[in-house]
Amino acid sequence: MNTKTLALIHTSATLVPVFAELCARYLPGVKVFNIVDDSLIKNTIACGMLTPDTSRRVVNYADSAQDAGADMILYTCSSIGPAVEVAASLSRVPVFRVDQPMADQAVATGTRIGIVATLSTTLDPTTDLVRRRAIAAGREVELKPRLCEGAFEALMSGDAATHDEKVAAALSSLALETDVIVLAQASMARVVDSLPESDRKVPILASPSIAMQFLANMLS
Q1: What global pTM score does this model have?
Q2: In whole angstroms, what is the distance from residue 55 CA to residue 104 CA?
Q3: Is the domain of 106 the same as that of 176?
Q4: CATH number for the domain including 181?
Q5: Helix, strand, or coil here: 7?
Q6: By C-alpha distance, which of 60, 63, 137 is closest to 93?
Q7: For labelling alongside 197, which of 40, 60, 172, 212 has CA 20 to 30 A away?
């Protein structure tokens, strides 16, 4: 069997080692290369939305990845998800957005779904994705999106403790109101590990490992 090649397209260099470890664990026989362009997320945050120009560049990276030999492509940022779906419709190889397997798992887990983010530019597309995946699965769900106001700004200013405190408070609160919680940004996953068991009453899902398991199952 020919060795498959996976292209990972990131909007932050910090995600490269995270996914390198996950690929080694879940996709040991797959060749992997990375494309990183942090201007995609910086422009999206600055504009408060995913613009047509940024979307076009997101789609173009799928062409670059195919030209470089990719048999499949995973975009690892939720904020650019809508453009990833456009890329998938135009690509010659399978293209995936990192949060779709997580959304499907959430829909299969419960009807009251919490969605947590520190950026509205991530919260909105993730909430929309979960809503559409529920419709596709024929399930009625109640979505409870929660924006952690000020958490992202605190993190960017070097105050990780305030960021973690705000995210933890949102998770603890939503755990009382939902059947499952979705982390719209993988960067929040480390906060889950610090939560006391009493605040982890429901499953809390993060996209990277779920996406890797999805790809591994698809290739098996």
Answers
A1: 0.92
A2: 24
A3: yes
A4: 3.40.50.1860
A5: strand
A6: 63
A7: 212
